């Protein structure tokens, strides 16, 4: 399934890698401000060499299909919308189904879910809502690695960063809901689909914090790799050198996965029109959890 390295290099220098980030509904919509993307997800991908295309919600399946064949990966960000019925969920399902089908046919299309995106992936894979309430809304934790070294995701991480990740609170958690480790291992679909790479514990429930799919380039973190380098509005976001390196290494891994397919826009004009550069983020730091967001 992996394309050869020499081809990858070729592509790195000659083409851009558009990776999509899903928009989601805003909490209080206004005219022309019905959906948003936190800018930290855009910066996260850009830091590792990708260019970003926003995926609007409420597009038709045909439009999602066309976009799918134009982009190299998709990221489902964190947030607060429904994973069972929302525009975010419908877009996530469209890309998930297309990615599974494409990967089955030998294509290599990566999907990444962060926080809500992680929970969305669990729902899409199992068809069930299996989450438990946990005391994890605003805390940085060290990862309890279960299979870190044997994973695709952490394989190339520097050993000292792995040590820091497992001993220092470098992963920021902002969620009320989690997938208990027990819930994953007692669900056939989830157990056979995802390798658990790390777990965490809120003192009461042990929950899954990082996964990768066994047979698909599908990845999820219940924690926020993008925040360490790019978000400052909460005191529990870690910014130490190891914390910031975590942001970068996670991004580098995922963008590396996106370099392994040949999806592209039919023309440069169409790509230019789709890129996030057409929108300006607004500064929201004083009143929100994000320094900057894009509004659509
Ligand atoms: C919404 O956007 C459209 C197209 O950009 C613009 O013509 C219209 O004035 C905007 N409406 C408001 C209320 O900002
Ligand atoms: C998406 O569609 C739903 C249902 O039709 C509607 O309520 C919502 O306002 C739409 N959101 C956007 C951002 O277009
Ligand atoms: C939740 O966790 C925090 C520490 O992160 C702790 O101070 C607090 O007492 C916990 N709350 C409950 C209800 O367990
Ligand atoms: C790490 O996970 C293992 C396996 O679930 C568990 O036995 C151990 O207690 C966990 N360690 C911490 C610090 O939570």
What is the structure about, briefly put?
With 296 residues, this protein is α/β, with parallel strands linked by helices.
Question: What are its keywords?
Answer:
296 residues; alpha/beta; Rossmann fold; four-stranded antiparallel β-sheet; globular; binds 2-acetamido-2-deoxy-beta-D-glucopyranose
Structure description:
The protein has 296 residues and is α/β, with parallel strands linked by helices. It has helices at residues 5-14, 39-47, 61-68, 87-104, 116-126, 159-167, 181-185, 188-193, 227-230, 241-258, 268-274, and strands at 18-22, 24-30, 33-38, 51-55, 73-76, 111-114, 132-141, 144-145, 171-178, 194-201, 206-213, 218-221, 282-283, 292-295. The protein has 11 helices and 14 strands. The protein has a single domain, classed as Class I glutamine amidotransferase (GATase) domain (Rossmann fold, 3-Layer(aba) Sandwich), CATH 3.40.50.880. Helix 3 crosses helix 4. The strands form 3 sheets. Strands 4-1-5-6-12-11-10-8 form an 8-stranded mixed beta sheet, sandwiched between helices. The termini are far apart. It is globular, with a radius of gyration of 18 Å. The chain is 35% helix and 26% strand. Bound molecules: 2-acetamido-2-deoxy-beta-D-glucopyranose (NAG) (4 copies). Residues 34-35, 57-58, 87 line the site of one 2-acetamido-2-deoxy-beta-D-glucopyranose.
């Amino acid at each position: 399934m992996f394309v050869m390295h020499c081809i990858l290099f070729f592509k790195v220098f000659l083409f851009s890698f558009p990776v999509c980030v899903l928009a989601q509904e805003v909490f209080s919509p206004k005219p022309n401000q019905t959906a948003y993307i936190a800018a930290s997800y855009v910066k996260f991908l850009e830091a590792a060499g990708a260019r970003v295309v926003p995926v609007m919600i409420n597009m038709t399946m045909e439009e999602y299909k066309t976009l799918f064949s134009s982009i190299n990966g998709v990221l489902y960000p964190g947030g607060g919308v429904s994973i069972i019925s929302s525009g975010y969920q419908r877009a996530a399902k469209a890309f998930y189904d297309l990615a599974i089908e494409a990967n089955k046919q030998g294509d290599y299309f990566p999907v990444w879910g962060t926080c809500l995106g992680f929970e969305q992936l669990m729902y899409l894979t199992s068809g069930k809502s299996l989450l438990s309430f946990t005391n994890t809304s605003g805390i940085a934790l060290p990862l309890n690695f279960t299979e870190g070294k044997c994973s695709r995701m952490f394989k190339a991480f520097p050993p000292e960063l792995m040590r820091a990740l497992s001993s220092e609170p470098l992963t920021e958690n902002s969620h009320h809901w989690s997938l208990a480790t027990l819930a994953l291992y007692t669900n056939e679909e989830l157990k056979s689909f995802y390798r658990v790479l790390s777990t965490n514990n809120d003192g009461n429930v042990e929950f899954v914090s990082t996964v990768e799919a066994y047979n698909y380039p599908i990845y999820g973190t219940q924690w926020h790799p993008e925040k360490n380098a790019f978000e400052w509005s909460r005191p529990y976001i870690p910014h130490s050198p190891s914390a910031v390196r975590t942001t970068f290494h996670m991004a580098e891994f995922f963008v590396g996965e996106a370099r392994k397919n040949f999806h592209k826009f039919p023309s440069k004009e169409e790509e230019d029109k789709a890129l996030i550069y057409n929108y300006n983020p607004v500064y929201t730091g004083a009143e929100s959890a994000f320094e900057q967001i894009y509004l659509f």
